[in-house]
Amino acid sequence: MSRKTLKENAIPTIFDFPENLKKAVVLRKPPIQRDLKLNPEVGTSSKENYFNNHTSDHSYFISESPRKLKRKYENIIDKKNEEIEKLKKRIKVCNLRVSRKAKKINNLVSIIEDLKEKNLVNCKTAELLEQNFSELSLQALKKKTKSFSNELKSFTLSLFFYSPKAYEYCRQTLMPSLPHPTTVRRWYNVINGCPGFTEEALSAVKERVDKTN
Length: 213
Description:
This protein has helices at about 40-55, 65-105, 110-115, 125-135, 140, 150-160, 165-175, 180-190, 200-210.
């Protein structure tokens, strides 16, 4: 047989293999020594970035607790309610002033004087209104009616002609029954603008003479 077997009288010996039979052994380089200490600033910033990225991913994320948010908005609502109450008191005071002013004004002359104080009409306009309409009843101006007398129309047209602001002031505060400015403008369209005395002026004079008699 060609198979090699260990003989019974063989004695083990230590020997070295020849160079051509030796297996080449590659030695690994030792690892490089590194400092394992981390920069604390870098570590902190990375943690913060991680936290921010993971807490702001969702649109429904809220940094404050619901209790804090409730307290915050309750304070805002309380401040707004205080502002509303202040405005209500201011409106109330203004309404009282207007009502007191309306009580003091008991005739047309006092109305014209009030317009002069507020610089809504000049002195010449005030004198003209007093001369022509001083006897006009204030109750007639305040009374709500669908038809207006010629004298009332004449006063309305005159006041609106000289000062639309004064007319609007009287209409909003003192005489709410005065016709709307669009109505007054419509009256202007039907007035005869030819030279001389107008029919409306003569009618107003006639009505005033009849009342005097």
